[in-house]
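Tip: read the tokens left to right.
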């Protein structure tokens, strides 16, 4: 099975300026993703899609190929990730005349996915003949306790749901999961057919990752927390450190 790993990162970030080049323990977010991707048994090739020369250079420094510059219209904060993926696929098919079995999309803002997570996703993808496999984490709060806040401050929808639930203690609720942004493994043919990542519920799967490997960085507080986790040894980063020596 041939999988194209696609590292995606634009230069602009409103929540945390220069986010993708920010460092944790002396390594950029781009560096974390590129290193773990190259360590995966299923990484046939690693390329980068970015509008930023600095991000492309940093990705190249860590082993990614720079094939193109992402068009400006795909580098805004409103640009669709689906279009970014399709642009990379179009480039490969048009300029190289080839296709892959799947494409593994990697966002630097979730830096701590390991090569083993990518391998697990690829094996699940193959075993289930999936169209999509994503990284998941457990949610902090059950969906029973989540709902809209009315303009007048009302929480009636939440209370309605709670009134129909026999056991209200948080610890009595079954575990629920959500996407953690760490990886998106999409079938090449499935992406061509549907032109979007989330398309076929029956062919969609996920791998569960622990909370620390699921850290997502969107603002300065997230970055500070990630730095704390690494600096205090709460997360084993030896695989990344060894790759840099």
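Filled-in amino acids:
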């Amino acid at each position: 099975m041939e999988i194209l790993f696609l590292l995606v990162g634009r230069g602009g970030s409103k929540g945390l300026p220069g986010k993708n080049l920010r460092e944790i323990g002396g390594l950029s977010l781009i560096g974390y993703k590129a290193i773990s991707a190259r360590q995966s048994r299923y990484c046939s090739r690693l390329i980068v899609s970015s509008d930023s020369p600095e991000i492309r250079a940093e990705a190249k420094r860590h082993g990614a190929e720079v094939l193109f510059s992402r068009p400006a219209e795909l580098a805004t904060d409103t640009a669709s990730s689906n279009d970014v993926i399709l642009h990379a696929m179009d480039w490969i098919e048009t300029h190289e005349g080839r296709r892959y079995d799947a494409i593994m999309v990697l966002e630097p803002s979730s830096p701590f996915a390991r090569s083993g997570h990518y391998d697990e996703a690829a094996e699940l993808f193959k075993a289930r003949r999936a169209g999509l496999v994503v990284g998941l984490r457990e949610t902090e709060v059950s969906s029973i306790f989540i709902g809209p806040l009315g303009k007048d401050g009302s929480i009636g929808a939440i209370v309605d749901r709670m009134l129909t639930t026999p056991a209200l203690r948080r610890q009595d609720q079954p575990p629920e999961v959500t996407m953690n942004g760490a990886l998106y493994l999409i079938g090449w043919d499935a992406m061509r057919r549907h032109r979007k990542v989330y398309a076929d519920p029956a062919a969609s799967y996920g791998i569960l990752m622990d909370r620390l490997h699921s850290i997502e960085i969107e603002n300065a507080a997230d970055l500070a927390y990630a730095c704390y986790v690494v600096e205090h040894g709460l997360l084993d980063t030896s695989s990344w450190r060894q790759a840099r020596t």
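The mean pLDDT is 95. Strands lie at 3-8, 23-24, 27-28, 43-49, 102-106, 132-138, 177-187, 204-208.
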